[in-house]
Amino acid sequence: MLAASVAAQAGASVAINGPAFLIPQLQDDRGLSLAQAGTVAAAPIAGVMLTLFLWGLVVDRIGERAVLLAGLGGTTLLGIVATMVHGTLPLVVVLFLVGMFAACTGSASGRIVVGWFPPQRRGLAMGIRQMAQPLGVAIAAATIAVVADRVSVSAALWIPVVATALACLSVLVLVIDPPRPAPTDALTANPYRADHFLARVHGVSVLLVVPQFLVWTYSLTWLVQHRHWSAAAAGALVAGTHVLGALGRIGVGQLSDMVGSRVRPLRWVAIAAAVTMGLLALTEPLAVAVVLMVVASTVTVADNGLAFTSVAERAGSYWSGRALGVQNTAQYLTAAAVAPIAGLAITHWGYAATYALAAVCPVVALPLVPRRDATSAE
Q1: Contact 290, 234 (CB under 8 A)
Q2: Ramachandran quadrant class, 316 (left: phi over 0; alpha: psi -120 to 50; beta: rest)
Q3: How many other C-beta atoms can be found within 10 angstroms of the C-beta atom of residue 105?
Q4: What is the CATH number of the domain that holds 362?
Q5: Is 378 part of a structural domain of the chain?
Q6: What's the sign of the alpha-carbon dihedral 238, 242, 247, 253?
Q7: Residue 163 is part of which domain span?
């Protein structure tokens, strides 16, 4: 179950985040500005944003397996269409639809882990599942930029097609819906009305996603265009940073199991993200900034599994699909705005100032982190 969950999330991550690694080639081959290329990269993220809650609602109603098969199958078919279009607007539209279908994994694959693993092992298991997102980005970084540079943008778009097709096959072979307890008034009650725990975790996640997606979206472009690295070398380094980010999520998940808390490590991650992004802003012209970019890529993704697990545990079996849909929608809404806004900020103010602005977000997030963990009625 865990392997299938990881495969599903990783395949969707390649489809959603892969277009970010087309930015240099979209500028060189198609004459797009940085802001325009960033908008193309954000198209699947925008599609994800609009459908995450709906997928979560469907998961609560019909289960995880059916949702994953429908969503990943649609993502694969639309990915094939994306390889055939050449105009900028048609590509944006198709990538937007790719994101809409790829959003299925946001709630469904997480629910598989929450449903099949007990609380004392859930942090580590969810950390492994959450590593799938940076793992997918690493796969995209190592392959898409190089293929786009050496062959074409259309050829590079076949990589997400292969990734989602393999993910769909793994779900078909392996996934069984986890058991759910019999419904009771406590389990089916709206958890958002009980307290502000879920709302606060959503807010923290929104703020922490800003530095995460800034680094994810523009690190390769920064290395290629600002520091004059080759596309292959930059792609290899970015891929490596995402592997480290994936391992970091596992480590933080295990730490949360060991300390018996999700919110304490979440607070530690927010502090680390603020410090790292601030140092990256201060040292951006220097060679050490490359090292700090690697550290930032690792630190800024570490919170996702903690927040995701907290939301699922608080919401319970009959609301976790919708709650995780809200969680991911808020994050992707922010992420969709980060690419074009950061592109404009970088164009007018430079990378250092943009990194400094991003460092403010985890500082603001700190007082929002709940002081203690909350659990569902289960």
Answers
A1: no
A2: left
A3: 37
A4: 1.20.1250.20
A5: no
A6: positive
A7: 2-368
Between CA 164 and CA 232 the distance in angstroms is 24
Greatest mean pLDDT range, 51-60, 225-234, 331-340: 51-60
Q: What is the mean pLDDT of residues 118-127?
A: 86
Spell out the residues 6+ positions from residue 194 whose beta carbon is closer than 8 angstroms to its own. Answer: none
Q: What is the pLDDT of residues 287-305, one digit of tens each?
A: 888 999 999 988 988 888 8
Q: In angstroms, rounded to a whole number, what is the distance separating the alpha carbons of residues 12 and 10?
A: 5
172 located within any domain: yes
| CA-closest candidate to residue 318, choices 52, 130, 114, 122 | 114
Pull the structure tokens for residue 263: 């919110």
* Number of domains observed in the structure of the chain: 1
Residue 217: C-alpha distances to residues 22, 37, 220, 342, 343 (Å): 10, 11, 7, 9, 10
373 falls within a domain:
no
- Locate 351 and state its tokens: 């990378």
Model's pTM, two decimal places? 0.77
User: CB–CB of 6/156 below 8 Å?
Assistant: no
Q: Which of 24-28, 89-93, 265-269 has the highest mean pLDDT?
A: 265-269
- Measured over the CA atoms of residue 104, residue 262, residue 293 and residue 129, the dihedral's sign is negative
Q: What is the arithmetic mean of pLDDT over 355-371?
A: 93
Per DSSP, helices labelled H in the chain are: 2-17, 23-30, 34-62, 64-82, 88-102, 104-116, 119-130, 132-150, 153-156, 158-174, 185-188, 197-221, 231-259, 263-283, 288-299, 303-315, 320-349, 351-365
Q: Is 63 left (phi over 0), alpha (psi -120 to 50) or beta?
A: left
Task: Give pLDDT, residue 129.
Answer: 87
